Each structure stands twice: as structure tokens, then as C-alpha cells.
Amino acid sequence: MAKLSLFERRRQRVRSKLRAQVAGRARLSVHRTGRHIYAQIIQDGEGRTLVSASSLDKSVKGKNGATCEAAAEVGKRIAVAAKKAGVSSVVFDRGGFLFHGRVKALADAAREAGLEF
């Protein structure tokens, strides 16, 4: 078996802890790259994505989406779209990313917009 990177080990640890918490709730999954940030709400029981948002949208402020302001905008958009889809409570899946910077900005904005996690 190949040795896993620190990122992959963190990712597996987070996902295994989430499986114990889920109890039928949807999962808010976050992915971050050097230029953009992506969020999607996934219903794991059905295996489908309910809602998604990203900084790729031209109306998101910030020059390239790699800012906390752009991440906060994505967080607000995902929360509003989730409300429209009838989702009010989710489990936050940060993947292997540390909970600071853009990931934290997205989470805080989603909470402020009314999403519970």
C-alpha cells in the first residue's frame, strides 16, 4: 500500500468522523484550489448533488476568486440555494483542507445566511 500524503490522511480522517455524524443530513463539501473555491451540497444516501456554487461565476467579487471575500460570497450563495432546495441543516466537510482562511470564510458566510451546521 502506498504511503498517503498528509492531505489524504486528513481527508480520510475527516470523512470517517463525518460518517458517524451524518444521520441522514446532507453534506456541504468544500474544495479549494489556488485560484477558486467550490462548494456543493450532496445527499449521500441518494448519491446526488443538490446544490453547487463556486467562485467561477463572473458575478462573484474578487479578481480571481482566491480571496476571502469571494469565498464568503460563495458561502452566501450556497446557503441561499440550499434554502430554495429545502435544505436547512448540513454536515460541513472541509475535506483535507485546514479550517482557516477561505474555507473558514465560506463556512462563516453560510452560517450567517441561515445554513445550520
From TrEMBL:
<dbReference type="GO" id="GO:0008097">
    <property type="term" value="F:5S rRNA binding"/>
</dbReference>
<dbReference type="InterPro" id="IPR004389">
    <property type="entry name" value="Ribosomal_uL18_bac-type"/>
</dbReference>
<comment type="similarity">
    <text>Belongs to the universal ribosomal protein uL18 family.</text>
</comment>
<comment type="subunit">
    <text>Part of the 50S ribosomal subunit; part of the 5S rRNA/L5/L18/L25 subcomplex. Contacts the 5S and 23S rRNAs.</text>
</comment>
<comment type="function">
    <text>This is one of the proteins that bind and probably mediate the attachment of the 5S RNA into the large ribosomal subunit, where it forms part of the central protuberance.</text>
</comment>
<dbReference type="InterPro" id="IPR057268">
    <property type="entry name" value="Ribosomal_L18"/>
</dbReference>
<keyword id="KW-0694">RNA-binding</keyword>
<keyword id="KW-0699">rRNA-binding</keyword>
<dbReference type="GO" id="GO:0006412">
    <property type="term" value="P:translation"/>
</dbReference>
<dbReference type="GO" id="GO:0022625">
    <property type="term" value="C:cytosolic large ribosomal subunit"/>
</dbReference>
<protein>
    <recommendedName>
        <fullName>Large ribosomal subunit protein uL18</fullName>
    </recommendedName>
</protein>
<keyword id="KW-0687">Ribonucleoprotein</keyword>
<keyword id="KW-0689">Ribosomal protein</keyword>
<dbReference type="GO" id="GO:0003735">
    <property type="term" value="F:structural constituent of ribosome"/>
</dbReference>
<dbReference type="Pfam" id="PF00861">
    <property type="entry name" value="Ribosomal_L18p"/>
</dbReference>
<dbReference type="InterPro" id="IPR005484">
    <property type="entry name" value="Ribosomal_uL18_bac/plant/anim"/>
</dbReference>
